[in-house]
Amino acid sequence: MSRLFSDREGDDGLPGADRRLAVVALTLATLMSVIDVTMINIALPTMARDLGITDSRAVWITNIFQVVCAAMLLVCAAASELLSRRKVYVSGIAIFTLAAMGSALAPNFETLLVCRALQGLGAAATLSIGPSLYRSIFPSRLLGSALGLSALVVAIGYAVGPSIGGVILSVADWPWLFVLYLPLGIISLIMAWRALPSEPRREGSFDALGALASIAMLCGVFMAMEAIGQQAPGLEILGWLALTLTAGSAFVIRQQRAAYPLLPLSLFREPRFSLAVGTQGASFIGQGLAVVALSFFYQQEMGFSALHTAWLFTPWPLTIMFVGPVSGRLADRFNPSLVASAGLALLMMGLFSLAMLPNDASVLDSMWRTALCGLGFGLFQPPNNRELMSSVPKERSASASGVMSTTRTVGQSLGVAIVGLCLAAGAGVQLALWVGAFTTALALLISLTRIRRAGEAQQVQRATRKAEASSEAP
């Protein structure tokens, strides 16, 4: 860990001391956003009872956060290029923290929903540009290790979120879940303001029409996936899909004509970037699908309680916590696409093994399979993120980061929708697990096609750094 904050002659990025403060800010902001969903989900039954609403309405306490966050990811990434990433990131922390306090004090369900929507906006501002800030903060030689640290933070958030929620609810009412964000938000805000690098604003205008089309498109995607997952009527699903296709077409046309597009489509002309995005999307479909499908399988097929189900999931994020930082270091030393492909192979084997899990399997028999999935996913994610971010010029880092966050969100939502389709068809959740395994196999095939390109790019980057160091030497 100490080498992440060591300085070397010729390094880009921030000095070691400033790097530490910036990482604290990024870590706390990421934890708040990741913990939110897992922690609040635990409290939904209690919140429904206290607010006098049905369980189906209470689900929107989580849904509204996710919808707004997903819809605003690309918009916030584009705004950061115009206003600076530092300002957008700090504003996101402030909005999230203030909205959390509003949620804690909300007198009724409607006010709570408004505050949760604002929290989603704040989360979008931080999550959309977080990976690009790691690229600005850390030297290029440590980018993989830095993104491994980011994967570690996310895994910790997923692992501890339900436990934190359970502990707080055992001694206090649900508003205290939101009060928790106040000290974390204040510390993160101060650190971010002091340590995040300042940068000049981009000249030009903001693509407002593109932003509206993007919001409509991503809202349509998320709502369509939610409708499929909830087995909504066919007309409702078709309506959301129609909105998605119409807004998506308008978005692409607008991006081709705008002087300053919200998302430069030229990014996708770089094969390394496009392949990394495709690999990420397919892998997150499998990951999102597995998490939901296993929840049903453990409780409905194997007869475990909700608490036991949460414990059965634990090996997945715990393994990522240990493997993620190691995977990032491997990506700095070796071909990142090769490391990522090895991780996808392990994830695929883990999902196939879970699809074959018998109903009467023991706890240990289940846990080694989820641990194998965590091992594979932890080995895959940091190298793939490194490849995605390093394949574009630094001035396009915010756009690449927004695409990364959006692809992750849409992939997970599509995975949940596939589980809903399997349940609606009466096919069972094990079929969904098979679909997840084959989707991960598709991600592996995409990843294997880019190994040569990634290796050549890494050699060029190393040669460039050596030449720059030699020219600066006395």
Automatic annotation (TrEMBL):
It is found in: Membrane. One of its GO terms (molecular function) is transmembrane transporter activity. Residues 22-455 form the Major facilitator superfamily (MFS) profile domain. The chain crosses the membrane at residues 21-44, 64-83, 88-105, 117-134, 146-168, 174-196, 208-225, 237-253, 273-298, 304-326, 338-357, 414-446. This is MFS transporter. PANTHER family: MAJOR FACILITATOR SUPERFAMILY MULTIDRUG TRANSPORTER MFSC. It holds the Pfam family MFS_1. It is a multi-pass membrane protein. Keywords: Membrane, Transmembrane, Transmembrane helix, Transport. GO terms for cellular component: membrane. It comes from Halomonas binhaiensis.
